[in-house]
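Q: Could you fold this chain for me?
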Amino acid sequence: MNNLKYYRKLNNYKQKDIAKYLKITQPNYSNIENNKVKLNFEYAKMLSRLYKVNISNLINSDENAINITKEDFKTIIQIKEIIINLERKYLK
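A: Sure. Below is the predicted structure, expressed as structure tokens.
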């Protein structure tokens, strides 16, 4: 599942508008929106800019999902490295 239709309607676009923006046909965009064809990364980046949302918001329709930014992800990795170093130091 994805949120492409949700964001398209939220911004008052028609499928043909988005297809034109992506430089593809409306039937091709319809297939992407309806999960018959996977959304590629380039189109995801373009749509995230158009709708001003993270890519994860476009592709994840799970209400319980946690959406994080790239900066948040980098912070999580740094914290993980700190924890690993602490474990090495104190759990020998």
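A (continued): The mean pLDDT is 88.
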